[in-house]
Amino acid sequence: MSLLDKKNGKLLVIAPHGDDEVLGAGGLIARALDRGWEAHVFFATSGGYTNGGSGGDIPEWVSMRLTEIEKAAQFLGITSYEVLDSGIGECVRLDTLTRRVMITALEDTLARIRPDIVAMPCRGHYHQDHRLTAEITLGALRPAPDGRLPFVPCVLAYGHTGAGWGGEGFQFSPNTFVDITDVIDRKLEALSCYQSQICPAPHPRNPEAMRKDAEHWGFLSGCQYAEAYECLRMVETI
Ligand SMILES: [Zn+2]
């Protein structure tokens, strides 16, 4: 049985920044679309702020990152996406928002899309935005048998090459794999839409490293290339 056996299903990928949807779940997105599913992405932030040093927000960076998101979405054929900080005119630092604001925004998205599968960032990532996004997603996806929240039967947490660093409490322990052999090239090309984020090898945010990562998970799951997920919830509804 495949996760994607349902007809006309809906996938929602939660991404802390533009590029995480590709790094973490680009193969699942491509396979879902190939199966006739809708694939939506919720970006917590464009990621348009400078890293390290004393650099502050640079408006051009925000528009550049939004342009890259659009390019990758067009390339993959994403059904729809939204960026939480769009319209504000600047990149929001997620750790300055209250969790309530973020959970409410995500709950609105879940109610509108009513996805069958949510792919979210794993909790075992050193980046504060990833950890925060994982935390608010778990809050928004809490069990609600009274029907106040949409029922999402399958919740998968993706990791990417940065996951797992940090020792206890930061583990990424995948137990679910998606065979992405047929779509690995599409995933790598989608990453190339994020030129500002690609670093020379052996940095993990690099097409060569991403192929090795997919190969590694393929070794562990018995296919050539795979994406790895922690299955956080699977309710059989067929
Ligand atoms: Zn990220």
What do you see in this structure?
- It contains six helices and seven strands.
- By secondary structure, it is of the alpha/beta class.
- The protein has a seven-stranded mixed sheet with strand order 3-2-1-4-5-7-6, sandwiched between helices.
- α2 links the parallel β2 and β3.
- The mean pLDDT is 87.
- Zinc ion binds next to loops.
- The site of zinc ion (ZN) has 5 residues, from loops.
Low-confidence stretches: none
Number of helical stretches of at least 4 residues: 6
Major beta sheet, specifics?
A: 7 strands, mixed
* Classification by helices and strands: alpha/beta
**How many distinct domains?**
1
Compressed to H and E, one letter per element, the order equals EHEHEHEHEEHHE
| Share of β-strand residues | 15-25%
Q: Any guess at the CATH architecture?
A: 3-Layer(aba) Sandwich
Instruction: Report the CATH C-level class.
Output: Alpha Beta
Count the strands?
7
CATH topology call: Rossmann fold
Features of this protein?
35% helix, Rossmann fold, 238 residues, binds zinc ion, single chain, 6 helices, seven-stranded mixed β-sheet
Care to give the gist of this entry?
The chain is α/β, with parallel strands linked by helices. It has 6 helices and 7 strands, in the order E-H-E-H-E-H-E-H-E-E-H-H-E. A 7-stranded mixed beta sheet has the order 3-2-1-4-5-7-6, with helices on both faces.
Question: What is the secondary structure topology, with strand pairs?
Answer:
Elements: E1 10-15, H1 20-34, E2 38-43, H2 59-76, E3 80-83, H3 99-113, E4 117-121, H4 128-140, E5 154-158, E6 176-179, H5 184-191, H6 207-221, E7 226-234
Parallel strand pairs: 1-2, 1-4, 2-3, 4-5
Antiparallel strand pairs: 5-7, 6-7
The structure holds zinc ion.
Zinc ion (ZN) binds near residues 16, 17, 127 and 130.
